[in-house]
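Sample intake sheet
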Amino acid sequence: MRAIRVGLLGIGTVGGGTWDVLNRNAGEIRRRAGRAIRIARVADKDVNKARRLVDGKAVLHKDAWEVVRAPDIDIVIELIGGTGIARDLVLEAIAQGKHVVTANKALLAKHGNRIFAAAQKKDVMVAFEASVGGGIPIIKALREGLAANRIEWIAGIINGTSNFILSEMRDKGLSFAQVLAEAQARGYAEADPTFDIEGVDAAHKLTILSALAFGIPMQFGKAYTEGISKLTQADIGYAEELGYRIKLLGITRRAPRGIELRVHPTLVPARRLIANVEGVMNAILVKGDAVGATLYYGAGAGSQPTASAVVADLVDVTRLITADPEHRVPHLAFQPDQLSATPILPMGEVETCCYLRMRVLDKPGVLARITRILADSRISIDAMVQKEPGEGEQRVDIVMLTHLALEKNVDKAIARIERLPTVVGKVTRIRLEALL
């Protein structure tokens, strides 16, 4: 049986890892797939660098379109990134009748609905295990391993850069700015780290997970996104004192009136396994009605871990390449004509517990006015810490944990509290999840 011929678009960090893994483990991969898988063509703008890596074992191209349109290519691996040229190349590969493997979470979150519809019409597969969680096989778990379950919720640490920053802030007592600089120096954060620290990268990944979990179309534009750039040592310290750790979580949950889709800093009980995931590692909790809570942990990025997922997709596509399209696992786990129109809830309609920290003047009656405002907004207090003022200090911190409350009610209460003349500055609000 002839080898499956692959066209690789981009031979940078992940592309180079894919080339390495596919060649290093060629014998093992052939035993698993039933036939050899060979990268026959490689496209990269840096042809000289690509030439050094490929060493004459594949045809090199500067123009990716040549690879996509080459008649001898069965599968195209897209590792260019972005949502412009990558989208056009993927759609052209599908139009040419080629299967696609991609690690591009932004592309799928924004254009996945169009891409999957095009693939279905052409009876080709689009595989994307590497788009979420690096080497963690979370996509396969949701599409296949948990197929018997009605998924209730997913909560994940799905951005290693932000997790590294929060871990270092907690362990070393450094400021956000100091740790961000360290992350950039180590290569964990880009020169422009906005996508990582403001939760955009995590929201791309969560959009994909939510679609797979609940059988809904990709709806990245409706994801609530809040990053970690405003977190302070004070909040990390108070969270520890109360028995919690702060993690940037992507959370999607089935609620009575719709689907929650949100990324934000979150207090998690310190005894939870996910609260103890440190550094650049990723971890994803999935709660199914039959299986209960399951945890998937591992390297969320990097050349070899991500390549592991890319090559696994190549093996899957190779196994099914001659199968009747009706017998393949649907792209979004559910049959295309069975996707749900369940709405994404606006953040104001989401219920969460909250951590509230406010700096107030040390005067009688301040706490009573704050608790009255919360009560008026149907917010009850679960726990509270009021710090003693230092010598000569006129201001103190009050920290409260609330029971479940509607987000829009918390917003109104915070606005009223901030208008009190005895409250100094803004109220810090961090959502809290028990993850039971």
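Comment: The radius of gyration is 24 Å. The mean pLDDT is 96.
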